[in-house]
Structure prediction request, 270 residues.
Amino acid sequence: MAVGIFDSGLGGLTVLDAVAKRLPDLPIVYLGDSAHSPYGVRTPDDIYDLTTAATQRLFDAGCDLVILACNTASAAALRRMQEGWVPDGKRVLGVFVPLIEALTERHWGDNSPPREVAVKHVALFATPTTVSSRAFQRELAFRAIGVDVEAQACGGVVDAIEDGDMILAEALVKSHVDALKRKMPNPDAAVLGCTHYPLMHDQFQDALGADVKVFSQASLVAESLADYLTRHPKMAGPGMESAFLTTGDPGRVSSRATQFLRRQITFEAA
Prediction:
C-alpha cells in the first residue's frame, strides 16, 4: 500500500520531495486540491468537508496512512477527523507534531508535564485560518511553558506561489516579516507553518536575519514518517506505484509542479 500525502495545492510537494529522499522505496500517492486552493481563507467547516473528501479519495486509492501536508487542514480539520471520521484500520496524521517535537526538543511520546525549553520567542508564519485556529499554540502548550508565540497571517503568499509569481511572493514575505517584527522585534526562532513556505525559506531567512533559526516542515515530517513506519510497518508495504492526482487542470498543475521540484512531474485528474 502506498502512503497518501494531501495538500490544498502544491505546497505539499515540499513534503513529498523530502519523504521520497528519506524513503526512496516508499510508494506515494499525492493529491493536491488545486481546484479549491487556497484553504487558508476558508471556513473550518468548508476545510473539513474538502479534507475528508480528499482523504477518502486517497483511502480509495489504497492508502491506509494519509499525511495532511497542509497546515490549514491540520489546524482546522484533523482533530475532528480523528475523533469521529477516520475508519478503523486507517490513520491520518498532521504536520504540527514533528515541528513541535523539533522546536521543543521533546519526543511526542514524552507525556511528562510541560517544561521550559530553550526558545522563548517564536514567530509563527501561517495562513489566516491556521493563525485564527491557534492550533499551533494549543499543541505547543502541552509540551512547553514560557514560550511567547507571535503569529503573522501571511495573506497572498500561497496564491502567489501557486500562480508561479515568485517576485510577488518574495515581496509579500518581506512585508509579512516586517509586520511580525514590529510586534516581536527579536524572535529566537521562526516557524514556517505552511508547506508552501519552504519554497521561500531563503527569503524568510534573509528578512528575519541570520541569527533567527527557521524551522520548516518538509525534512522534519519525512524523518517523523520514517520513524512511524518503523514502528507501524503494516501501514506501508509493496503493491502500488506512486501517483500524482489533482482536482485542478492536470496540464497546468504538472507544469507548476515541475517548476517547483525541478524534475518532471505528471499529474492526473483525481
